[in-house]
Amino acid sequence: MASTGQPASSLKRASSTSSEGDELIITPLGAGNEVGRSCVHMSYKGKTVMFDCGIHPAFSGMAALPYFDEIDPSAIDVLLVTHFHLDHAASLPYFLEKTTFRGRVFMTHATKAIYKLLLSDYVKVSKVSVEDMLYDEQDILRSMDKIEVIDFHQTLEVNGVRFWCYTAGHVLGAAMFMVDIAGVRVLYTGDYSREEDRHLRAAELPQFSPDVCIIESTYGVQTHQPRHIREKLFTDVIHSTVSQGGRVLIPAYALGRAQELLLILDEYWSNHPELHNVPIYYASPLAKRCMAVYQTYINSMNDRIRNQFANSNPFDFKHISPLKSIDEFRDVGPAVVMASPGGLQSGLSRQLFDKWCSDKKNACVIPGYVVEGTMAKTIINEPKEVTLASGLTAPLNMQVHYISFSAHADYIQTSTFLKELMPPNIILVHGGSIEMGRLKQKLVSLFADGNTKIITPKNCQSVEMHFNSQKTAKAIGKLAAKPPAAGETVSGLLVKKGFTYQIMAPEDLHVFSQLSTGNVIQRITIPYSGAFAVIKHRLKQIYESVDPTIDEESGVEALRVHERVTVKRESENHVSLHWAADPISDMVSDSVVALVLNASRDLPKVVVESEETGGEEAAKKGDKIVHALLVSLFGDVKYGGEEGKVVINVDGNVAHLDKRSGEVESENEGLKERVRTAFRRISGAVKPIPLQES
Amino acid sequence: MGTSVQVTPLCGVYNENPLSYLVSIDGFNFLIDCGWNDHFDTSLLEPLSRVASTVDAVLLSHPDTLHLGSLPYAMKQLGLSAPVFATEPVYRLGLLTMYDHYLSRKQVSEFDLFTLDDIDSAFQNITRLNQSQNYYMSGKGEGIVIAPHAAGHLLGGTIWKVTKDGEDVIYAVDFNHRKERHLNGTVLESFVRPAVLITDAYNALLSNQPPRRQRDQQFLDTILKTLRTDGKILVPVDTAGRVLELVLILEQFWEQHHLTYPIYFLTYVSSSTIDYVKSFLEWMSDSIAKSFENTRENAFVLKNITLLVSKSELEKVPDGPKIVLASMASLEVGFSHDIFVEWAADSKNLVLFTERAQFATLARMLQSDPPPKAVKVTMSKRIPLVGEELAAYEEEQTQKRKEESLKASLIKEEEAKASLGEELAVGGPMIIDANIKQPSSKASGLKHGAFRDVLIDGFVSPPSSAGPMFPFYENTSEWDDFGEVINPDDYTIKDEDMDQSFMQVDGDLNGKLDEAAASLMLDTTPSKVVSSELTVYVKCSLVYMDFEGRSDGSSMKKILGHVSPLKLVLVHGSAEATEHLKEYCLKNVCPDVYAPQIEESIDVTSDLCAYKVQLSEKLMSNILFKKIGDYEIAWVDAVVGKTESDTLSLLPLSTTPPPPHKTVLVGDIKMADFKQFLASKGIQVEFAGGALRCGEYVTLRKVGDSSHKGGGNIQHIILEGPLSEEYYNIRDHLYSQFYPL
């Protein structure tokens, strides 16, 4: 059912030829066996969805992008972005503005609001050359116009792709997307956390089990300490440091976890009046700008915050004040400062670190995942000395604490989540290959009994799955007056909208759809000054059914030809034709027109034969012609014993032909077929066109 | 067969009374809206009281009293106990609206229909949904999906879509298709051909709404005229509904024109209203969302409007021209009532109505034409008790307390009796509990003080009270080989102190109430209501401007024509409006239009026949679809077969030539469009006498109006002309507009 190992280059072909295919193809364009540049491409039944559009923070320029070359951006119907972090959203301006992508983009309200601030900041601070810049501020602004918003649980449909999102925890506005294409459901978790924290809800458990679950595996098989223990550790360290006159530095990324830590601190300070003279600062202009967003999208947060909101906005901090730059900061006594960047590479957090690292009263609390190669990673190992930004070395005397508040699911959360969902296919993304491998091992043993498939594709490695989708249609309206028994026939219009099918009678089309049926009635006048009887006679030679009628309106003589076209004598010099358009009627009418025109041209020569030829005589005459023609074809043709039967003898093979029914009996199959065809053609030429074959 | 659907109006048909309808879908009873009027007239709820206990779910559409006012009362008194569904803003703003009503009422009367606690507990039952969220009902309603969609009109206003087996029942009242400052227009038009549509006829007779720009300008002019002549303006508003639009309009004008006249927004809950509204940006118009994303400026951070929660605050501000937006819109009670009485006599002042008031209210009276010269009003005031009255009150209270304690002790006695009796009956081995840790409910029996009181009161001591043994309490602790079994949970110390603080927060009222309101509510000083009747001469000018935010009659008709439900139910609207709309819809929308009376149950089960079949792969591979707009369409001839699971399936016909069928031309041709099309092909076209003249001789006519969709007619196009090349040419062009099948 699922297979990996598809060569990467086949994807382009697959996405173009899979238009009618039932193959669900999922390809990570980034975050396959790595962390960063999340981007997963998926196509099924000619619909294409892409999840996330991030960059890899360790690279710059084009190298940071996901492998967009592998896909055709113009074929993508919907692009869904789970949250605002750079590794999930930062290549969006590039993808929207610099590729052929023409689909629609969705993210939650909060994500969109922060996305703009975050990326503008990212463009400003990234120190790359102009050529290496993927996009500029203007591209971000333009992309804002293209991004549409979706609220949690809101169900939308684009080109037959239905999707909605669930709360994912992780950060404000983070979502897990469920996509439903023709009944096959795919869940993409993005980054998620099943643990409720101070302001965010835990990731929801979707109501329906998806057919495929694309899930993050950042923490692999690790498990977190319970949250309240971490929080207590955090506040205890800070409390003891400041009460001993020390300063606390919290290097943190500006958005996401920082807000959670500020909530913890503000609340702790409220409960400990003795600390009120110790100031708390957060030194991040970006965080300050985003505070308005946090203060507004309260409804995306958990009930705790919403209930607190009933009294006052919890993001109106009482004990915490913003700090613009280090110049504003008067370093006179115990204080708590939260500053970005989180890795202590440069900027304010590094300046403060350099200043405080030699005093053993001070403390540095590292609250989250730290990237390899940064100062923060270095000091976790507590070296004796550190190199300052100025190049000098200084002794590291301050206490260093690592307390992780990272809001990614750990093994326990992931396994219980999957156990409850029981998706038949699990695709792991967003995790280092070692962690991911360990997680896969553990999950394989966890789901040892069932048919669960666990796949860890690398970047650009496609996973193909086949889903047997049973198409069902609903027969409605007049057509469905009574349910048919097996063996009966059903004829009607099959109407497909999105992935739903309906069968209905043509008369009901306008009732059940926005389509309507039309009816074109044509009336054409032809100059003709001859006798009407001539037309009638000639028509009778061609058509079996020519009924004389009287036109109701004018009372003139009229003919109904082939039960479709009415020929009417309009005036001395004109006849008119009148019929409802359809291909056969049009053909009949064309032949009538030709006949009338011919008749009027031939007028002088025409000799009207006696009308009273009599049916019998005419039939006899026809019979003779048929017989003559058969003789010319087969030679030995004799009248059989019965009325209308003919015996044909060709080279010893005998065929019996019934001229009235056209049935042929013969031992020789070849002859039988030939006689039958010949007779059909002869009757077609000699006899008028019968009515029932229309 | 289709899903069975019955609609029974409980209130609000053929008049403008509050809305309340019972919609039963395959036996699952939805109560859609449970409104009340500003008078809180219990007689309106009689029909509801008869069915309240059978309701399985309640859906609320708008956060005002007309749509949800009776919820607390119905929950408390009428036995309504079903789960309630509403959008987040409807929940929150509805709660504030009810608080405001209660507090306004309580201030001037002994209001006892429901209390703040009743409001809270009623609203706790509400499940909050997001826009277009599909909610799958469980249990009895298995298979039913409900989804709220934007209705416009009020923040969070909802069109309910209830789906079962692919058939949609849509409830859409008070919708607004126009985009406003704070709201997007309704999405009603995106629903096409639902099985049943329930809608209102409220605005059916109203047409010709002035364009928004013109109306706003008029509004501004009127206001400024009064302010510049030193007049004061009272705008009676609702608590948290249409007032939001007015707030934004005023805020914007003041900003644009740099005006300095003070504006006050006065309700008991004004500041919390605005606080909450600030957090509902997801529900507002695109422009508000966009401006927030770009500048992070919340449109509801008000710079020119002062929020007040008590009248004394208003009295403190200096006299002079000002605008006051005050609740209630009906002028019956609340701040608006008091202010009206004060200001009405001054001809400089203006009372500006922005919505049609409810029937039989003071505001409605003033909106009549011509307005009355004088109105009788009742001024009521709650004043603290003093002197004798206070003494009398206190006496009464003590009396009451005594009675209560008496009653309580009686009950306790009963309990004790019962428990004793029980124990006697059980009569197990006699073990005396050493650690005297009785369950508290039984412990009350030991309070001898109260107990004895009653006994002394001349009652014969009940036979069972004098048991043949000392009170005996069963030892509930369990023992095993190692002694008493202990529950470790009893000894763990809750280390999540964070949650405790949260509990504290939660403890002091769920919804935030403003100080004054809180003081009123928590005020236990004895007080009474004094009323006096006085006549107010209405000298001030009265102006009505339509800021109701509902679609007008002609737009409604257009929307209904577009939605064209298979069956239509009309509710809410004056008798004339209902009749008018019914007639119109019968002619132009669909043949099944109902306008039931109160408690008249109508059956709108669709007479649709339907069955499901599987489409076999073999059949599908032979079908070529033609794409028409969103649809793909094909003619299918198939034979019915059975699958293993005994469902019907369609297989290709075994005989090769399919049976003949009449050709179907699919497509909707508009004469005007076709004219354009022909013109673009270089053919001279013009309309002449209802027909389209194409070229020299050919004419094209359309018979049968296609607007009447429910009628089951097919449009006929007549093409006439002499035999000529042009004729065939035009015919080809005409054919190109259709898809023959």
From TrEMBL, chain A:
Which keywords annotate this record?
Hydrolase, mRNA processing, Nuclease, Nucleus
Q: Where is the Pre-mRNA 3'-end-processing endonuclease polyadenylation factor C-term domain?
A: 486-689
GO process annotations (BP) = mRNA 3'-end processing by stem-loop binding and cleavage
Alphabetically, the GO molecular function entries are: 5'-3' RNA exonuclease activity; RNA binding; RNA endonuclease activity
Q: Which GO terms describe its cellular component?
A: mRNA cleavage and polyadenylation specificity factor complex
The record's section on Pfam families has:
Beta-Casp, CPSF73-100_C, Lactamase_B, RMMBL
- In terms of superkingdom, the source organism counts as Eukaryota
Q: Does the keyword DNA-binding apply?
A: no
Q: Where in the cell is it found?
A: Nucleus
SUPFAM superfamilies from the xrefs? Answer: Metallo-hydrolase/oxidoreductase (SSF56281)
Protein name per Swiss-Prot or TrEMBL? Metallo-beta-lactamase domain-containing protein
Source lineage: Eukaryota, Viridiplantae, Streptophyta, Embryophyta, Tracheophyta
